[in-house]
Amino acid sequence: xxxxxxxxxxxxxxxxxxxxxxxxxxxxxxxxxxxxxxxxxxxxxxxxxxxxxxxxxxxxxxxxxxxxxxxxxxxxxxxxxx
Length: 82
Hints:
7% of the residues are buried. The longest helix is centred in the middle third of the chain and has 17 residues, at 44-60. Helix 1 packs across helix 3 (44-60). The chain has a domain at 14-68. By secondary structure, it is α+β, with helices and mostly antiparallel strands. The protein is built from three helices and two strands. The radius of gyration is 18 Å and the shape is elongated. The protein has helices at 19-29, 31-39, 44-60, and strands at 9-13, 68-72. Strands 1-2 form a two-stranded antiparallel ribbon.
């Protein structure tokens, strides 16, 4: 490929004050997370482990200080146009 320019994109996430707010948001609003919580609803240990895991994920990405910025480079479209 020639003439491809890739621009780094970024997204700042600052709507969660704590990792637990991140967890609660996804538990309440994100379909796949809601489905998993419903599936394991009768197992308190698994529910607690999922909650800890989501909060830990937020911490791993720096949301324990209330804000983080994610950066990525979009992959160029490699489809041929003729």
